[in-house]
């Protein structure tokens, strides 16, 4: 080990001094890049060393359509929660500011729209179940 100088970097305990060069043709290069990207290792050299010495590495595949679907479903859920909050506020304001007859007529309209929202919510749940079933088939 080298003597520690007061200037510059601290010397490494096990410096990497040997370099190996590898050449690929186009098909091999594309295959290598695909494997490298799937492994999500931060450097090609680290990937090659791990693969060469038989170390295990994980390959994570992310289905972009599933991620997009999940994101949109989460946004939808947030909107439904906001509608629930607004619903309570509307009912309270109807009771305070309108006559009983007028409030009942408006509540009837509100109830119709609420039923439509419940139907839409059930469709969303059903679509989510279908998506999950398709994902399970692809996974298994």
Can I get a quick summary?
The protein is mainly α and 140 residues long.
Keywords for this entry:
4 helices, 140 residues, mainly alpha
How would you characterize the overall build of this protein?
It is a single chain. The protein has helices at 26-39, 44-52, 64-97, 100-139. With 140 residues, the chain is mainly alpha-helical. Helix 3 (64-97) runs antiparallel to helix 4. The protein starts with 25 loop residues before the first helix and ends with a helix.
> What is the H/E order?
HHHH
User: Globular, elongated, flat, extended or rod-shaped: what is the shape?
Assistant: elongated
Beta-strand fraction estimate:
under 5%
| Number of H- or I-type helical stretches | 4
Class derived from helix and strand content: mainly alpha
The largest β sheet comes out as: none
Determine Rg (CA atoms, Å): 30 Å
The count of DSSP E runs of length 2 or more, i.e. the number of strands, is 0
Task: Give the low-pLDDT segments.
Answer: none
Estimate percent helicity: 55-70%
Distance between the termini: 52 Å
What's the average pLDDT? 80
